[in-house]
Structures are given as structure tokens and as C-alpha cells.
Amino acid sequence: MSAVLKEPRVQIRDMREGDLEAVFLNEQAAYSHPWSMGILRDCLRVGYHCLVALDDRGVIGHAVMSVAVGEAHLLNLCVAPAAQGRGIGRRLLRRVLRLAREHEADTVFLEVRASNTGARRLYESEGFCEVGQRRGYYPHDEHEREDAVVYARPML
Prior knowledge:
- 28% of the residues lie in helices and 38% in strands.
- By secondary structure, it is an alpha+beta fold.
- It has one domain (11-154): Aminopeptidase (3-Layer(aba) Sandwich).
- The relative contact order is 0.14.
- It has a 7-stranded mixed beta sheet, sandwiched between helices.
- The longest helix is centred in the middle third of the chain and has 15 residues, at 88-102.
- The chain has 4 helices and 7 strands, in the order E-H-H-E-E-E-H-E-H-E-E.
């Protein structure tokens, strides 16, 4: 007899003020240079498209996207380290792409650390193409910076 492990069901919904503490904790766990609570709060306040992914343990991922003048910018996509590898990042990405399409964005742009090969594979597998680099865009450690790779995906 074998046991079947059932994955917790994941729900994606709009982020709420009450989610910010959990979102901030995921940022701190996932990134060496996380967004601050103030930045996260401001994204909600100004009306960016902010989503969370939840399972029975709570918030396990989030995404933030702005849309204006036919362009969308995926500003943040984060999955808690303990929840990575379950397709949650892909689900969040597909949801923001759907939102971009609904808001008539022609193109979605994003930046990703050059060293983040997992995220780069995800974006490329969802139709994003490298369109440039930003030298020294991300803080790396106390005295160094890391390049960003700029990706774009047409929404036609």
C-alpha cells in the first residue's frame, strides 16, 4: 500500500492590506534585498495590480504589476522558498499576463537578476524574450551590483 500525498490547494486573489505582513516575510525569506513594507504598501495604495497566492498555510507568493499607456511592467514575482518548485510562480505569472491583456497592454516588460536562472527559464518558457540589460541594476553585496536582464513579451 502506498500513501498519496496531496498538495494543498492554491488560490490566487487580489492582495489586501492584511496580507502585507506575510508578503513582507516571504520577500525577506526569498530575496537578499527584499522590498520594504513601505514599498509594498505603496503598491497597494497607488492601485498597482497586486496578487497573492495562498494555500492552507497562508500567503506563499505574490506578484505586483503596473499597467499604463499600453505597457505592463511586472515589478515583482515572489514565491516563498518553502513553496518553490510547485508551479506557483508560473500560475502567478499567467494571472498577471491575463490582467495585462484585459487592460489592453501591448507588451509586458520585466527585469530579472542575470544570475536568477530559474526565473529566467520560467519567463522564457512563457514567451518572454531578452531585449536588453541594465548594468549594475540590482544590489549584490556591500560593494557590488548585479546586472538585470530585461525581458519583454508581446501580448498580441
